[in-house]
Specification:
Layout lengths: L3 H5 L13 H26 L8 E8 L10 E4 L2 E12 L2 E9 L9 E6 L6 E6 L12 E2 L1 E3 L4 H22 L1
Parallel strand pairs: 1-7, 2-6, 5-8
Antiparallel strand pairs: 1-4, 2-3, 3-4, 5-6
């Protein structure tokens, strides 16, 4: 039904449209934008993304074997996390691991990076053992002293192989 016909007729009262409140709409919109901003901030935080990396720097370490080491693994000195593994690349015949460290910690040129396991069957992490040098590794430098993973399976295989190998050598001499 077209109400304009009724409103244009003489003697009929026009319906009053309520006045819109600018302040109410403004505050509802502001609250909605704040909610979306908070959700975005939490999503970035939960995803582990960094918007700036001014408080970190990169150091490289080369290992013969990094079995089980993954991206995001922690880097620790004396059990205190100082960074994380940010990249792993094969640089034949070694694995080149990129360590992203906090700027407050400087590594010395004779520090030893070794790959260890948390617990009995836990995740792998990089443990830094301090050296006694006065020289520091510059940003983008490479750690010279590294210790690869001690793989229990390899050790057991070598022991079994050496035991069976001795018996075969003794039998061939007879």
């Amino acid at each position: 039904m077209d109400q304009s016909k009724f409103n244009n007729q003489p003697g009929s009262a026009a319906l009053a449209v309520p006045k819109r409140s600018f302040s109410l709409e403004f505050f509802v919109g502001l609250f909605a934008m704040a909610g979306v901003g908070a959700a975005a901030y939490l999503a970035v935080g939960l995803a582990g993304l960094e918007l700036s990396s001014k408080d970190t720097y990169l150091i490289y370490a080369e290992f013969d074997n990094i079995s089980g080491l993954k991206y995001g693994a922690s880097v620790e000195i004396a059990g205190v996390p100082i960074g994380e593994v940010s990249d792993i690349v094969l640089k034949d015949p070694v694995a080149k691991v990129t360590l992203k460290l906090t700027r407050s910690v400087k590594l010395k040129d004779d520090d030893i990076a070794s790959i260890r396991t948390k617990g009995i069957i836990g995740d792998r992490y990089v443990k830094i053992s301090r050296g006694g040098s006065d020289k520091y590794i510059e940003e983008g430098g490479t750690m010279v002293e590294t210790e690869s993973v001690i793989d229990i399976e390899d050790v057991i295989g070598k022991v079994v192989h050496s035991l069976t190998g001795d018996k075969e050598d003794d039998e061939s001499k007879k």
